[in-house]
Amino acid sequence: MNNPITRVGKQGLDPLIKQGLDQAKENGESFGKTLENFITEVNGLQNQASMSIEKLATGEVTDVHEVMIAVEEANTALEFMLEIRNKIVEAYQEVMRMPV
Fold first, then answer.
1. Helix residue ranges per DSSP H, the chain
2. C-beta separation of 52 from 71 below 8 A
3. Contact call for residues 35 and 21 (beta carbons, < 8 A)
4. 33/24 Cα distance (integer angstroms)
5. What is the pLDDT of residue 17?
6. Apex CA 13: angle with CA 9 and CA 17, to 5°?
7. For labeling, which of 2, 18, 47, 60 is most exposed (least CB within 10 Å)?
8. Residues 30/55, Cβ–Cβ less than 8 Å
9. What is the maximal distance between C-alpha atoms in the chain?
10. Residue-wise pLDDT tens for the chain (100 aa)?
């Protein structure tokens, strides 16, 4: 069950983002709903990583690499979500500074 390592950047995250945006357009979802779905996915990754760590601690899983991959995926997704949040807050603050 080896997954090839893909480069994060143009080839790694962009197709995932485009896929999510295309799905949102097809479903007619709002920005809020798309953001909510993304947060739910990140939470799922966090829970999956936590369960992997518990299974490693109890001895159910012996492959440390799989656990580390799950933890790093969750960490990367969380960092990405935080950057999105920062950009949203920054955009909101910029709009609030505009003269009416």
1. 13-27, 31-58, 64-97
2. yes
3. no
4. 9
5. 64
6. 135
7. 2
8. no
9. 62
10. 555 655 554 455 556 666 766 776 777 778 788 888 889 999 999 999 999 999 999 999 888 999 999 999 999 999 999 999 999 999 999 999 998 7
Residue type, 23: Q
Token reading at 99: 């003269």
State the pLDDT at residue 61: 85
Query: How far is the C-alpha of 52 from the C-alpha of 46, rounded, in Å?
Result: 10
52 and 67 Cβ atoms separated by less than 8 Å: yes
The position carrying tokens 């920062």 is 86
User: How far apart, in whole angstroms, are the C-alpha atoms of residue 8 and residue 40?
Assistant: 21
